[in-house]
Amino acid sequence: MLSRVAESLFWIARNVERAEALARLLDVTAAHSIDRGGGGREAVARRWDGIYAVAALPPPEPPVPSYAAEAIERIVFGADDGRSIAACVRIARRNAVGVRAELTTEVWECINGLYLFVEAQSPRALGPDGASSFLRSVRDTAQAFAGICDATLAHDDAWQFLIVGRYLERASMTARILRAADGDGEDGTRWQHLLQACCASEPFARAGRQSSDPQEALAFIALSDVFPRSIRFCVHEVDHALHRLSGTPAHTFSNAAERAAGRVASQLDYLAVGDVLQEGPHTFAARATRWLDEIGEAVTTSYFPRVPVA
Predict the structure, then answer these.
(1) DSSP secondary structure string, 163-213?
(2) So what's the pLDDT on residue 129?
(3) Which of 142, 201, 260, 294 is positioned for an S-S bond with 195, CB 3.0–4.6 A?
(4) Is 126 found in the same domain as 180?
(5) Banded model confidence at residue 68, pLDDT cuts 50, 70, 90
(6) Do 127 and 168 share a domain, yes or no?
(7) Is residue 263 packed enough to be buried (19+ CB in 10 Å), middle (13-18) or exposed (0-12)?
(8) Sign of torsion, CA 136 16 290 232?
(9) pLDDT of 125-183, one tens digit each?
(10) Are both 135 and 212 inside the same structural domain?
(11) Tens digit of pLDDT for each residue in 235-283?
(12) Running DSSP on this structure, what letter comes out for residue 100?
């Protein structure tokens, strides 16, 4: 497979996954703010500042008339270096146009439909009442994209690069949510907000962890080996996909990407819950983010090298 094609598939998956995560996080945070009755402007500001941190955007300068409206303006429709939901969808669709021959009709129609839907909207058209419906539509379509890819594409090299991009971005977003959630709120409701932000409420309950201790929720989201949005699970999926691409046996490596992913997967396997709690969620999430950045850089170096033109 051409490096250019592989890179486009990688970034399609990453940008669709990022758009889904941001849409879910915005919707959950808006609902959480309403349910808690505000909690004071300082608490509201801190809650929304965490969303900007996850999106890698600077928070707005106070005073802000409406934090929800400001977030819709910037995180959904903003043009800040491709970080907004709309920008991610545009990037994904542009890459899909370039590799249309590698995609099934169903995959193309899904991503093109998402693009047309987002482009037809604006902050003014949505208004305060339509934001939740819009965000849920973005979330649902992005989640459907992953399922359609798995169900209609041959599970060859093209699909493997989609898997690498999807799970690498998912792990990165989970780590950012954990980092932003540290110290979020003053009561036991903060753990429920964190679980909802990661689609983990029901899996956490089914795992038999009925505790209201937010630290247990952090440990579940970070280290579960069965929850598909935990950092550990996602890193293992990246590692497996990289080995399927090269044909290298498990627990060995043939390039920098496999070495980086295997090293991080092993560290997470041997990391105890107590270690995470002792280190602190913020510090752990920051370290996990660095690990994931290293994997991303190694994937780029191994599979998408920049060849200088003489």
Answers:
(1) HHHHHHHHHHHHHHHHHHHTT--SSTHHHHHHHHHTT-HHHHHHTT-----
(2) 63
(3) 201
(4) no
(5) confident
(6) no
(7) middle
(8) positive
(9) 776 567 889 999 999 999 999 999 999 999 999 999 999 999 999 999 999 998 887 55
(10) no
(11) 999 999 999 999 999 889 999 999 999 999 999 999 988 888 888 888 9
(12) G
Instruction: Give the end of a domain, one of 127, 153, 179.
Output: 153
Whole-prediction pTM: 0.92
Q: Looking at the structure, tell me whether residues 134 and 31 fall in a common domain.
A: yes
Taking the C-alpha atoms of residue 119 and residue 304, their distance in angstroms, rounded to an integer, is 30
User: When comparing pLDDT for 147 and 35, which is higher?
Assistant: 147
- Calpha distance 190→192 (Å, rounded): 5
Tokens linked to 155 = 């599970």
Torsion of CA 200, 203, 205, 208, to 10 degrees: -130
What is the average pLDDT value for the chain, to the nearest integer?
88
Query: Looking at 153, 172, 205, which one is the last position of a domain?
Result: 153
Domain that holds residue 162: 155-310
Pair 34, 142 in one domain: yes
> How far apart are alpha carbons 70 and 67 in whole angstroms?
5
